[in-house]
């Protein structure tokens, strides 16, 4: 099948969903109101709380939730065939991710910008908050550790991407200063920023050898691997970036990176159309070796970002909700963010299914699930390089372009992830009554950086280390569990407001069933492999999952009981500024 037909079909479905399904969710499920006073206005401090143009905020939200995951997961999942992978991307984006990200923003906005973990205490109970925060802390630690490893590895293997990526930092700061001080629109400056960034790609290619030699020399002098040196540099950057006011670096860089989404999609889909690429991988892979993980439930765990991801609820309620200018902007930011990520996931599937050199190459590289997991990002950059050659660009330069896109998104996600980790550290410190840490920006940031940094450097599993080589096997289940639990909080909140929670309940039940099923299967696998570390972690997550499911189920039951009584928030369906306290219950 022509790859461009696949791409256009998926994009058409997304457009129809935004036109018809998203307004239904906005009006009938969440009840958006343009007169509601958002936390960005109520608590404006110029650091975390800042009313932001919805297009700029879309840039932050999308690039923060994207990272490398919507590229890596779909590239791996083509192991089962590109048909099942795309089916889950489309259905997950439209019916799960849309209500999940959108809902997390809305519920946080209606509750003073509180994080989804803290909201679980208000909506469910205090025990749920403690359990949820533990799961979130593990998830953020793993995400930050692995993304740092991915960025370090990409720098080590693609030194031509170093100069463009580091050039983007002062460029974004300059644009941020210009926008903040002149109060002018961000569109033109950010487009200029993207042009300048891409002009640096051939410069990066020209100086790739000296950069590689310099990094090798410094790493050798410090008795480190080159990848380890880059990991240390990435965490040093994250430490500084996550403490800056959002307008200084976060917003302008994210807006620049959001334009990269459209450019990357244009390069991929345009190259596919011009080059006449076809889907050479099998629609459904019938040649999987014995012992391969089954589609149910592991397809839905492997593709998290790009379909639905619990990490998104942390961004939605952690940073996005604090910058939302108007209540009604939540639909555009939340739903368009998920569809942008779904489009990126679709591009990843097409890149590995149509761009890696034919059916024989696919059979070799996807010989088993392990080979698919190890090579996913490399297959994507290789495929994008081939698509770029349709425009007369060398495959090598196209691969550097792909690396710049992946690193830009991953660095943005990590920046936001460390900022979120700081919030979680402060919340946990408050719970266990460690007041100095709870109130210290320096202390919480140091913990938020050192914990994932240490994990990223611990050896184990394979050459990717403990975090990526072993613990990453629990990322999918933990991430999707977080999505299910976030949906549970949203569903209870919707039910208490006398609105129909079916649009939230359907993906909620599906995700919790798939996640607990996967956790149960993995328990047996880890026990059979005598991997007691993963067995213990899996068992702990499984117990927490079941416990939280029970707590959420009881809360939902109580919400339905309350709906028949007088103690419900009846007026919350029209959340004007003078009704905020009632709406936040």
Describe this structure in words.
With 585 residues, the protein is mostly helical. It has one domain (3-583): Amino acid/polyamine transporter I, CATH 1.20.1740.10. It has 25 helices and no strands. It has helices at 3-29, 39-42, 54-66, 69-77, 82-109, 116-123, 126-157, 162-182, 187-206, 208-221, 226-241, 250-275, 295-302, 310-320, 329-354, 359-365, 369-388, 395-431, 435-439, 441-457, 465-469, 475-496, 502-528, 532-563, 580-583. The longest helix is centred in the C-terminal third of the chain and has 37 residues, at 395-431. It starts with a helix and ends with a helix. Mean pLDDT is 89; it is low at 566-585.
């Amino acid at each position: 099948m022509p790859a461009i037909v696949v791409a256009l079909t998926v994009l058409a479905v997304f457009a129809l969903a935004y036109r018809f399904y998203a307004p239904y969710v906005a009006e009938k499920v969440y009840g958006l109101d343009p007169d509601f006073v958002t936390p960005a206005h109520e608590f404006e401090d110029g650091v975390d709380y800042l009313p932001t143009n919805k297009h700029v905020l879309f840039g932050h939200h999308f690039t923060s939730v994207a990272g490398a995951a919507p590229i890596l997961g779909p590239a791996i999942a083509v192991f089962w065939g590109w048909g099942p992978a795309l089916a889950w991307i489309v259905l997950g984006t439209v019916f799960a991710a849309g209500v999940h990200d959108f809902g997390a923003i809305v519920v946080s906005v209606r509750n003073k910008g509180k994080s989804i973990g803290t909201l679980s205490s208000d909506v469910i109970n205090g025990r749920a908050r403690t359990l949820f925060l533990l799961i979130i802390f593990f998830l953020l630690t793993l995400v930050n550790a692995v993304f740092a490893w991915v960025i370090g590895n990409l720098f080590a293997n693609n030194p031509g991407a170093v100069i463009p990526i580091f050039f983007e930092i002062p460029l974004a700061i300059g644009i941020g200063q210009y926008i903040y001080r002149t109060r002018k629109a961000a569109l033109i400056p950010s487009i200029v920023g993207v042009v300048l960034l891409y002009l640096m790609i051939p410069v990066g290619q020209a100086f790739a050898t000296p950069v590689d030699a310099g990094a090798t020399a410094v790493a050798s002098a410090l008795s480190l691997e080159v990848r380890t040196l880059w990991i240390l540099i990435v965490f040093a950057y994250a430490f500084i970036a996550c403490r800056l006011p959002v307008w200084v670096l976060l917003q302008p860089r994210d807006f620049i990176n959001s334009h990269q989404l459209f450019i990357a999609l244009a390069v991929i889909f345009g190259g596919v159309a011009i080059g006449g690429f076809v889907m050479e991988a099998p629609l459904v892979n019938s040649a999987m070796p014995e012992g391969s993980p089954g589609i149910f439930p592991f397809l839905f765990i492997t593709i998290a970002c790009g379909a639905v991801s619990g990490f998104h609820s942390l961004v939605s309620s952690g940073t996005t909700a604090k910058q939302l200018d108007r209540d009604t902007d939540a639909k555009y930011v939340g739903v368009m963010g998920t569809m942008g990520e779904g489009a990126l996931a679709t591009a990843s599937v097409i890149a590995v299914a149509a761009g890696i050199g034919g059916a024989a190459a696919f059979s070799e590289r996807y010989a088993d699930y392990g080979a698919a997991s190890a090579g996913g990002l490399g297959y994507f950059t290789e495929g994008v390089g081939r698509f770029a050659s349709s425009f007369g660009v060398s495959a090598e330069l196209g691969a550097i372009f792909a690396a710049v896109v992946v690193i830009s998104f991953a660095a943005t996600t990590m920046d936001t992830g460390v900022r979120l980790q700081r919030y979680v550290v402060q919340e946990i410190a408050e719970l266990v009554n460690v007041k100095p840490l709870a109130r210290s920006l320096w202390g919480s940031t140091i913990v938020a950086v050192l914990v994932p940094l240490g994990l990223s450097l611990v050896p184990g599993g394979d050459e990717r280390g403990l975090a990526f080589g072993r613990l990453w096997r629990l990322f999918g289940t933990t991430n999707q569990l977080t999505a299910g639990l976030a949906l549970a909080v949203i569903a209870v909140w919707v039910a208490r407001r006398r609105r129909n929670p079916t649009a939230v309940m359907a993906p909620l039940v599906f995700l919790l069933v798939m996640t607990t099923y996967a956790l149960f299967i993995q328990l047996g696998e880890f026990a059979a492999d005598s991997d007691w570390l993963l067995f213990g972690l899996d068992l702990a997550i499984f117990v927490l999952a079941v416990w939280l499911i029970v707590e959420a189920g009881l809360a939902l039951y109580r919400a339905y009981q309350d709906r028949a009584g007088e103690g419900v928030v009846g007026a919350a369906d029209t959340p004007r500024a003078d009704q905020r306290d009632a709406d936040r219950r």
